[in-house]
Every structure is written in structure tokens, then in C-alpha cells.
Amino acid sequence: MVISNVSLLGQNISQNNNLKDLRYQIIDLQRQISSQKKSENYSGLGTEANSIQRMRAETSQLEGFMKNIDNISTRTEIMSISMSQVTDISREVINNIQLQTQNGEIDLLSLKTVAQENLVFLQDLMNSEHDGRFLFSGTDVNNAPFDNAGTINTNMQNEIANWLNSTQTPSQLLNNVETMSDGNLGYSSTLSTAGDVYARVDTNIEINYTVMGNNDGFRDIMRGMALAANLEFPDPNTDTATEAEFHQILDEIVTIMARGTKAMDQANFDLSSRNSLMENIKGRHLQDTETLTGLVLKTEEVDTAELITKLQTTQNQLTASYEVARIVNSLSLINFI
After folding, report:
1. How far is CA 57 from the centre of its chain?
2. Quick one: the chain helix, strand, coil %, rounded to 5?
3. Span 154-192, pLDDT tens digits
4. If we measure between CA atoms, which residue out of 321, 309, 278, 291 comes closest to residue 67?
5. Fewest CB atoms within 10 Å of the CB: 6, 136, 146, 222?
6. CATH class name, domain 70-270
């Protein structure tokens, strides 16, 4: 009888452990179905944990690159629009000069008014900014690239006055205009030390999207426009300069501005090409992010239908185990006899 009791005790312990395991299994299955996750933490994922952490880190890095691309794309789009407006107003002044020259009559007041108004607009466009950053200042983002409109007008007026009184020839005037320093053109003193700006778009890829306010396109358009805005027609009663020289200067203004317009168009094309490259890289990052996200979900998430079936099976096992335990616990020597 002692042996029988010991045997029943061992059996009861085994049954209770089995029942406990089944209850734990049911609780875990219910949790997985409710959360749609295999585990509440990485430790519950076993050998897959390292892979998931690596994929999540890579996804986070790709998202950082895409955010950076979005920020830079906004800047380059504003820059491109500003540059297109610069070439538009440059062509307007060029067309105004050419049209008046072809007609044989120069309405200098009208020409100067158009040039003066567009010169102010040009200077505003050079100082385009976004989110507190000046876009055409390179790394010198806190300082406007153009900060002294009075300087360029004063210097042009001096050059024209020296031509009118024959202190210098038209060729000397034009050479002086062509070789004016950035300071004499009204540019910021800090612009000359500014560096290029880059966008980090991938682990090993940086894209240079620099367009400086003193690049060849901006500089030539401003030179020509400022000269046109301050040009004077020789007065035969007081000036020794001639009408032929006036037209020589006018023709050279068109040449300078046309050269600047071409350079600005090329700079804008280059910038647009870099922007397109960034968008292509972003598209690749987006595909990689979607792939990684899918792999993480596939690893972390559960098959609900499979779990429901498994839950039902486990519940049936638990019910059956309870019934076996009830029968065993109800056995006695009288029932046995």
C-alpha cells in the first residue's frame, strides 16, 4: 500500500507539471495572438534577435539618409527656382537692349529703369534662404552673400564718369568692370572663405550641391545689369565720350550678361542633375527600407491562423489532461475491487 501511494504521488506530480506547462503554453499563445508578436522582447526570439537588431539599425540609418535627402531637396529646389528667375530677368534686360538697338532709338530712361528694378530683384534672389540658412553662401550659411548694394552702384557710376570725361577709354571701363573684386561688387566679406556644402545620402556617398552667390553666372549678370542700371548717354556739350562708344559699351553689356546667363543655366542644370541623383538614391533607400521592414515583421510577427489552431489543440489537450487527472484522483481500493 505504501508503494501504491508513492507511485500515485509521482504520477500526480507529473500530471500537475504537465497541466502547468499546458496552461503556460495557452497563456503564451493567447498573448501572441493578441499582440501579433512572437515575443515581448529580444531575448524571447533566440538566435533571430541579432538579425532583427541589425535590420532595425540599418532601417534607421536609411531613414536618416532619406530625411537628409528631403531636407537637401527642398533647398536645391528653392535654389533652382531662384536661378531660373535670375536667368529670366537677365534675358529681359538683354532683350530690352537688343530691341532698342534694333529700332535705332535708345530710350535710356526705360532701359535703366528695367535694369535697376531687376538688379534689386537679382540681389534678393542671391540672398535666398530657407529655414534661416542662406542658400548661396556655401558653408557661410548665417551671412547673406550679397550685403552692399550701394558699393556696386557707386563703383559703376565712377567708372562711367571716368569714361564720360575721357579719363579712360570704353575698353578700360569694361576691363575695370570685368575685373572688379567681390568686395567692389558688394559681396559679403566672409563669402570668399566659405566652403562647399555636401549632402550625405548614403554610407559612402556625399553629393556637392554648392552654388555660390559669386559664381561666374551670378557675377557676370550682376556686372552687366549694374552697368546698364547706371549707364549715361554722353552729353556733347559737356562730355568728350561719343555715341559710338556708348553703343560699344551697350553691346558689351549684352555680351557680359549673355555669358552670365549661359553659365547660370549650366549651374542650374548641374544642380538639377544632382537633385535627380539624390531622388534616385532615395528611391533605392525606400525599397531597401520596405524590404527590411518586411523581413523584420516576418521574423517578429506570428501566423494568426496557425496559432489559433495550435491554441485549440492545446486547450483540448489541457481538457483531456484534466479529465485524466480527475479519473486518477478518484481511484480507490474499493473502486478497484
Report:
1. 21
2. 75, 5, 20
3. 999 999 999 999 999 999 999 999 999 999 999 999 999
4. 278
5. 6
6. mainly alpha
Task: Measure Cα distances from 34 to 29, 45, 302, 312, 318 in Å.
Answer: 9, 17, 10, 15, 20
State whether residue 235 is helix, strand or coil.
coil
The three state secondary structure string of 240-283 is: CCCHHHHHHHHHHHHHHHHHHHHHHHHHHHHHHHHHHHHHHHHH
* Residues 82 and 128 sit within 8 Å (Cβ to Cβ): yes
Supply 235's cell numbers. 552729353
Interval 113-131: pLDDT, tens: 999 999 999 999 999 999 9
Provide the whole-model pTM.
0.76
Could you state, in order of their start, the residue ranges of all structural domains in the chain? Answer: 2-36+302-336, 70-270
The three three-digit cell numbers of residue 53, written as one number: 537588431
CB contact at 8 A, 164 and 232: yes
- The count of residues in the chain is 337
Residue burial 132-145, b: 16+ Cβ < 10 Å; e: rest: eebbbbbebbeebb
Q: What is the DSSP letter of 206?
A: E
Cell of 121: 530683384
